[in-house]
């Protein structure tokens, strides 16, 4: 009888914690990215209020690889909706609050119909920019396949509050709303990143007529990518694709040559590398297990890079995937943060309340959730380490102590910036050229 009562008490406690977690996300005061009690030091928001605006950019005359036939590839215009967060001035008495519109599901998948939902953020829609004495560094953010420019608001808002202009892309034919054939994603990720960099530089020119004029410094840019976004960010910054990748792409597209310009062997590829990009954050980058890089390609990555991975990643792979990229990028000053026992979802917002509804496909929940980790804790840890890494390389801040920690958090004193007893389940590797 005593055992039965004790077991029942444990079950009730578990249910209570589950209800608290659900109610927290259903609470109008809760916002993705808010701190939980054991959040590390640099996870806290910065001193700037945050504004947010939406734009649509159009990349004209691009290869339409989804309609390639017999080696012939037509051209088309690629619309690229972007969300832009920036330091802002919020009028007195007006809340720093925004409602984002999102969908879950997958376009053209009858088992996962598109379901609209909204969630709150801490930013002022169309707020006036806070123009300082100097322009802010630029960050470009790239989602996975499939995904959305709003998948990382916990991080994009946080970084804008610390003095960055943050631009997150909806990659055409790769979002929840318009997912199409994979060759488009394979080709266009790096090209989209580089185009958006050029557009932000144009719109941010001093004396211009847009709200971005004089606000950002495109010569001091960082790329942040998740999954296929990480794949593209690495290629945009020196990791040219292999001959094997080119063969794979050609087989998928009936012989299209469009991919050749992103291969390490191409003179056009090397000419495309942009010196304005100074640092890279790659969350769970895809491609290594499929042979998209060889030793020469990985050796081409020379920029400071922070990799973030789950040790049980079943999408990008860990030992033969993300860790192999880290090990092979021998010419880069690089870090790798590993969440032990995490799978692939080491970058997104927490699961929205709508994903918890009975009867939905489990992937609506597992698009965001990690089975062995609290996603809000992952978010806070990411805020901390991305702040430290980008602060070092784009703002010249003295944050090395937060990154140069013992490799295993389980077998060492508490990591710098972490609360007592909280730096467990993590590893940090650092390798220099």
TrEMBL record:
A single GO molecular function term of this UniProt record: 1-alkyl-2-acetylglycerophosphocholine esterase activity
InterPro entries, sorted: AB_hydrolase_fold
Keyword Signal among UniProt keywords: yes
One example of a Gene Ontology biological process annotation: lipid catabolic process
Signal peptide annotation: 1-23
Keywords, ordered alphabetically: Hydrolase, Lipid degradation, Lipid metabolism, Signal
Protein name according to UniProt: Dienelactone hydrolase
